[in-house]
Amino acid sequence: MTGRRISIEQSDATWPERYQKEASLLQRVLSDIPVVIHHIGSTAVPGLAAKPIIDILLEVTSLHLLDKHNDTLRQAGYTPRGEYGIAGRRYFVKGENQRTHHLHAFEVGSQHTVRHLAFRDYLRQHSDIAQEYERVKRKAAEHSGNLSERYSQFKNDFIQRHEALALREKSHRQPG
User: Whole-structure pTM over 0.85, yes or no?
Assistant: First the structure.
């Protein structure tokens, strides 16, 4: 057990700056491979309370190329965790007991990238849904016993339902 506490905090105006600083670091340390970097998760939604951990999505042309940078990412403070339960992903954490960042890497064109960005944009566009999500997260944190898996399970139904709506809405907005 890592002893980490699941804590939902009020939205913090420094979250976008913390993301930007980390994105610049990642751009620098991965300068020899093409990457696109996105701020995802609740800290990417203005006004939404969240765990104070910045979630970053990294799009790469090749996970194989990214795997060759594990030592470089370790030097930048990231611990590689492999796929960590999602096929086609590379997952990294920064800070063990005091997490600061989660890095999710997928190859360009991954459906996982599409769904993460659609859900983030959906929450940005629907403040009522974002507030409902905040209530779900607070309840999940309260009832999870500080176990990450339980916290995620408590949120899962809400996320799946609204992710599907987000993807449907996104497909209706795209030109035919």
Answer: yes
